[in-house]
Amino acid sequence: MDERVKELLDRVRNTAATMGQAAGVTARYAGKCAGQMVDVAKLNMKIFDLKTDINGLLREIGSLVYAAHQGKDPQGDRVEELLSQIDGKHQSIAACKEQIAVLKKCRECPGCGTMCGRDDKFCKSCGRPL
Asked: pLDDT-derived band of residue 1, with 50, 70 and 90 as boundaries?
């Protein structure tokens, strides 16, 4: 075999090996990103469910308040219990949002709620220091 042909085939083989390695790295990174997206979607669904629960609790509190307005038994203990449940659900929502921020490598502006980079010093929307 001609030396130049052999050299060309060696270069093609080396290039193919390098491309295979690059494709493997890219596939692993894409898999990691897809996993993070699934985790974020699950957390967003959990937040949605918690907000739905909060709306139901608020509806029940409204019914109790209206019943008290009509002169029925005020059931203040039940209202306090429902308010405590709502507080717990808000804490769970905050924890989910923090997990999302960690996954996305960002944080929420305390002023306007815009998501900013983890290393940002100021909010990109309102300019507030982070």
From this structure: low
Q: 3-state SS string over 29-68?
A: HHHHHHHHHHHHHHHHHHHHHHHHHHHHHHHHHHHHHHHH
47-71 average pLDDT score: 95
CA distance 61 to 75: 10
How many Å apart are CA 45 and CA 40, to the nearest integer? Answer: 9
Structure tokens at 91: 């804490």
Q: Against a cut of 0.70, is the pTM above it? A: no
Q: Nearest-CA neighbor of 94 among 81, 110, 118, 111?
A: 110
> Are the CB atoms for 2 and 9 separated by under 8 Å?
no
Contact 128, 112 (CB under 8 A): yes
31 vs 80: which has the higher pLDDT:
80
